[in-house]
Amino acid sequence: MGGSYLIAGRNVSSHYLAITTLATVGLGAFAISKRIKSKKPNTPPINASSADEEAFIKEFLKHAEEEEKKK
């Protein structure tokens, strides 16, 4: 094995530091990827024939979500 480092009054082997570093980077990347995916809503596209119909659908969905949050 390699040398060891004195951290907080304890001897820590270099391979423990390497494993800890890799685990921390891996968990950080995993957490970031999960956070980014959760911000995207999973709603289907609105296929409206006119702008008025699309506005009505969006307004209806907005009111439905507000009522659902109240319950």
Automatic annotation (TrEMBL):
Domain of life: Eukaryota
Major localisation: mitochondrion
Organism (species): Rhizophagus irregularis
GO biological process: proton motive force-driven ATP synthesis
Protein's UniProt keywords contain Lyase: no
Pfam family, one: ATP19
Listed transmembrane segments: 12-32
GO cellular component, one term: mitochondrial membrane
Coiled-coil features, chain-numbered ranges: none
UniProt entry tagged with the keyword Methyltransferase: no
Protein name: ATP synthase subunit K, mitochondrial
Keywords in alphabetical order: Membrane, Mitochondrion, Transmembrane, Transmembrane helix
Localization per record: Mitochondrion membrane
PANTHER family: ATP SYNTHASE SUBUNIT K, MITOCHONDRIAL
